[in-house]
């Protein structure tokens, strides 16, 4: 099995994706998902080496969840083409299951903590990016939880984002929506330079 490397995952994302906004989405989802890997490692009391490996797996999964989307955007192909490629190249099954489960039409339900984390972070990362880009500064540092919740009620704002997936994601993780927003916001603010926000 391939040692899961976020660097290798990011290289693959960039190789397959010409859209810069899609690359940025992958980076944002990766940082949010990674933050849940760090939390889960703490809950499980993992030793540092195992905790790092868990965070790396979560981050790599976020990086690769849409890596085939630029080339294969239809529901018939995404994420199935990407998952087949990853399987062929020895990426771990738990990652592939999470990638399948993030697409609600795939027939694969989110089961593991990794599955739930990716599902929960996908739409929210996109929404938080949209919230940042309407700020005069275009900075994620200026986005606050209360403002995000208000924007979620505005159906005309970022209308492609499925609000129900954000809410369901928080439920899958067993945390209040405010905590989920705060967690992902903190993860994206910490890596604002990388995300161009």
Automatic annotation (TrEMBL):
<feature type="domain" description="HD">
    <location>
        <begin position="41"/>
        <end position="125"/>
    </location>
</feature>
<dbReference type="GO" id="GO:0016787">
    <property type="term" value="F:hydrolase activity"/>
</dbReference>
<dbReference type="InterPro" id="IPR006674">
    <property type="entry name" value="HD_domain"/>
</dbReference>
<dbReference type="Pfam" id="PF01966">
    <property type="entry name" value="HD"/>
</dbReference>
<protein>
    <submittedName>
        <fullName>Predicted hydrolase, HD superfamily</fullName>
    </submittedName>
</protein>
<keyword id="KW-0378">Hydrolase</keyword>
């Amino acid at each position: 099995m391939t040692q899961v490397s976020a660097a290798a995952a990011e290289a693959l994302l960039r190789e397959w994706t010409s859209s810069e906004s899609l690359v940025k989405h992958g980076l944002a989802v990766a940082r949010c998902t990674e933050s849940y890997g760090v939390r889960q490692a703490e809950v499980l009391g993992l030793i540092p080496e195992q905790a790092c490996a868990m965070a790396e797996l979560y981050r790599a999964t976020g990086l690769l969840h849409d890596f085939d989307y630029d080339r294969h955007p239809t529901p018939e192909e995404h994420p199935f083409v990407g998952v087949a490629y990853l399987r062929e190249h020895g990426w771990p099954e738990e990652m592939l299951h999470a990638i399948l489960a993030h697409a609600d039409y795939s027939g694969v339900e989110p089961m593991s903590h990794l599955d739930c984390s990716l599902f929960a972070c996908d739409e929210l990362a996109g929404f938080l990016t949209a919230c940042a880009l309407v700020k005069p500064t275009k900075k994620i540092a200026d986005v606050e939880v209360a403002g995000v919740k208000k924007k979620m009620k505005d159906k005309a704002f970022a209308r492609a984002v499925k609000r129900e997936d954000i809410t369901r994601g928080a439920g899958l993780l067993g945390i209040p929506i405010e905590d989920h927003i705060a967690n992902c916001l903190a993860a994206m603010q910490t890596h604002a330079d990388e995300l161009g926000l």
